[in-house]
């Protein structure tokens, strides 16, 4: 019985470790002012992460009541005083990541929002082109069927 329990424990430990939650904290820029720092937080482990807490210089800043699965994430921004800061993200499952940023005291320049992907009209998509080709083929078949000579039925 002891051997069975030991074997079961030794079998389950790698499974638990392999499904450890991991997160990636990424600083990607500033908002309308240099004091507004923007971040993304993504789950990179095999297990989901939840209840992400942000810490600024070791002090709790904000908790996000979220549940993010593998490869998923969210975006947030926080307002900071000018200077050097350590931003940390921790999940309820123990996942952790940190990033150091420098916030300037200037007023900043003109705010340039991130470039959004261009929305293509339906006429410029491959679906539209494929639809045109299919309709043209159907039209050719219908015209061919209507114009071919019918064989005389002498029965």
Give short descriptive properties of this protein.
four-stranded antiparallel beta sheet; Immunoglobulin-like; 155 residues; alpha+beta; three-stranded antiparallel beta sheet; 7 strands; elongated
What does this structure look like?
- There is one protein chain.
- With 155 residues, this protein is α+β, with helices and mostly antiparallel strands.
- It has a domain at 21-120: Immunoglobulin-like.
- It is built from two helices and seven strands, in the order αβββββββα.
- It has helices at 2-18, 126-147, and strands at 23-30, 36-43, 49-56, 59-68, 73-79, 83-90, 96-103.
- It has a four-stranded antiparallel beta sheet with strand order 4-3-6-7, with no helix packed on it. A three-stranded antiparallel beta sheet has the order 1-2-5, with no helix packed on it.
- It is elongated and about 95 Å long.
- The model has no long low-confidence stretch (mean pLDDT 80).
Strand order of the largest sheet: 4-3-6-7
Uncertain spans: none
**CATH architecture group name of the domain at 21-120:** Sandwich
Q: Give the overall average pLDDT.
A: 80
Q: Helical region count?
A: 2
What is the terminal-to-terminal distance? Answer: 89 Å
What does the secondary structure layout of this molecule look like, with pairings?
Layout: H1 2-18, E1 23-30, E2 36-43, E3 49-56, E4 59-68, E5 73-79, E6 83-90, E7 96-103, H2 126-147
Antiparallel strand pairs: 1-2, 2-5, 3-4, 3-6, 6-7
